[in-house]
User: What shape does this take?
Amino acid sequence: MECNGCEFRPELYYDGEYQIWVRVENDGTVSVGMTDLSQTIAGRILHVRVRRPGTLRPAGKPVATIESGKWAGPVPNPFDCTIEAANPEVLDDPALLNRAPFDAWIARVRPAGDLEKALEGLVTGEAARTGYCARARREDIRCERPSS
Amino acid sequence: MAESHYLDHGEQRVVIVMTSGPSTPHRCATPFYIGALLASMDADVRIFLTMEGVLLAQKGVPENLTAMKGGKKIIEFMREAKAAGVRLHLCKPAMPGYELEVEEVIDEVDEISPAGALADLILGCDKTMFF
Assistant: This one.
């Protein structure tokens, strides 16, 4: 499923700007990653740094920072959480985020409170697809993946 | 995994004094880039546009200026810095010297500030950078 060449996965949860995706894992943790829109805006990603596991992160504070040659910015955190892990594959090869944005999670976090409540502020399914496509069209974002 | 992959910084205030402007375009992207990165690392970042830097706050200038040929517009670097949490200050006493009027100032500027505000920011911050 895609919009403007940007991959979209309806089973995931998204922030209101579609910068990040969120996936609930079987152990109650939550994986956080970048969307195809975000990796396209960033360009080839050179560095990823994640808050150290065990760190409490309030909503709005980044869980990680991303650097490309032309863009630097946060991976936002949509709810109060504790950092559980960073993805070692992404830390060693940040361009994974460009090649496979929906498979390469960046951080795994544990919501501070109730999981369902944490997800309330996110969008998923058809509503997310509509918003995701609207942003791609509004900002004329045409997703690209590097070949290597 | 290398230790450098992890972030441990506490909250700090950083002031970036931006004196470069359109006459040196290659100096105009990095302060906003590094500002965005610092803000993403929990720093409270203020970029203070003064001297020729005030021209970056003039409508039509950052929209048409790039640091390198074919590169991203400076206004995009400014907007990304703001999206990361950076606040932009414009030096009021520097404006007349560059014939910059208030109505010409881009919407991205958060505050038009007196020189005393810059003095307060510098005296109260943890780190300063000058470009």
Summary: Residues 60 and 77 of chain A are 5 Å apart (CA to CA). The radius of gyration of chain A is 14 Å.
